[in-house]
Amino acid sequence: MAATGSSSTPPPTSAPRSNRSRRCTRVRRATDACLGLLILRESQPLHVYATGVVTRGLREGNVLFKTLERFAGQVTWHALVPGTVTPLVGVGGPSGLWLEPVALAGKVPLHLEATASPSDEDNIGLVIRDAAGRSLAYFPGLAGPTAACDRHARAADVLMVDGTFFRDEELAELGLGTRRARDMAHWPLGGDDGSLPWLASLPCTRKILVHINNTNPILREDAPERAQLEAARVEVAYDGLEVEW
Questions:
Q1: Which residues pair with 75 in a beta bridge?
Q2: Which of 143, 146, 142 is nearest to 125 (CA)?
Q3: I need a surface site. Which of 148, 151, 185, 225 has the fewest CB within 10 A?
Q4: Radius of gyration, alpha carbons of the chain
């Protein structure tokens, strides 16, 4: 995720290669959750919010992330601690938003399994609140239900949640791999023990699936799996989506 921000020494907004996304949050150490940072590598200041485990996974022994150290102080790292509320600073000062990290069920990323020990900070969600008390829970990677996940999801006005796979054996059924959804720490939507029955029970104003794999049949509007989502009042995210509530 990225939020527009400022710095004490920002480049002019008209700079040919500047980018207004200067506040970023990292929710896990998985490669697909972190590569976007490298796109912001040009000569501009960045503020990155991440847990200690994620920060170390990105910075220690990682040559690629040296591209974010083109000059002293290019990146300012802000620690996220599960259960601790952190203000998000925006253009000209406080943004009026607060972040609360929530430890979620997950796993050590595949590329770190041989060197890293599991941690509660491996995979987090974010509850984002505004001054009016409205909240959005962002849980893009979810291996399964936990008490904390359920509590925060039920209290949120909007929930954006892991919709990677519909079936646990989805890749194998299509001849695309042998690993199950749960092997990759993704809670599949379908079945009595899937996430969809849980989502249907939540009182959120909006429930939106994100991080959807291209094998997932919910991407087809005429698929029976898509009809199950609609019956549960669950939406499918799309490029350019704006959330209002």
A1: 46
A2: 142
A3: 151
A4: 19
Q: What is the pLDDT of residues 122-152, one digit of tens each?
A: 899 999 999 999 999 999 999 999 999 999 9
- Of the candidate CATH numbers 2.130.10.10, 3.40.80.10, 3.30.1490.20, 3.60.15.10, the domain formed by 134-238 belongs to 3.60.15.10
Cβ–Cβ contacts within 10 Å for residue 154, how many?
13
Which amino acid appears at position 98 of this protein? W
pTM: 0.83
Amino acid at 23: R
Q: Could you give the CA distance from residue 144 to residue 187 in angstroms, rounded to a whole number?
A: 5
Question: What pLDDT is attached to residue 14?
Answer: 43
pLDDT per position as a tens digit, 183-237: 999 999 999 999 999 999 999 999 999 999 999 999 999 999 999 999 999 999 9
User: How many Å apart are CA 140 and CA 211, to the nearest integer?
Assistant: 6
Q: Give the integer Cα–Cα distance in Å for 120 and 112.
A: 15
pLDDT band at 10 (very low <50, low <70, confident <90, very high): very low
Write down the domain spans for the chain: 134-238
Amino acid found at 185 = A
Q: How far apart are the C-alpha atoms of 25 and 51, rounded to whole Å? A: 9
Cα–Cα–Cα angle for 107, 110, 115, rounded to 5 degrees? 90
Query: Strand ranges (DSSP E) for 70-166?
Result: 75-79, 86-90, 93-103, 124-130, 135-139, 158-162
What is the reported pLDDT for 61? Answer: 67
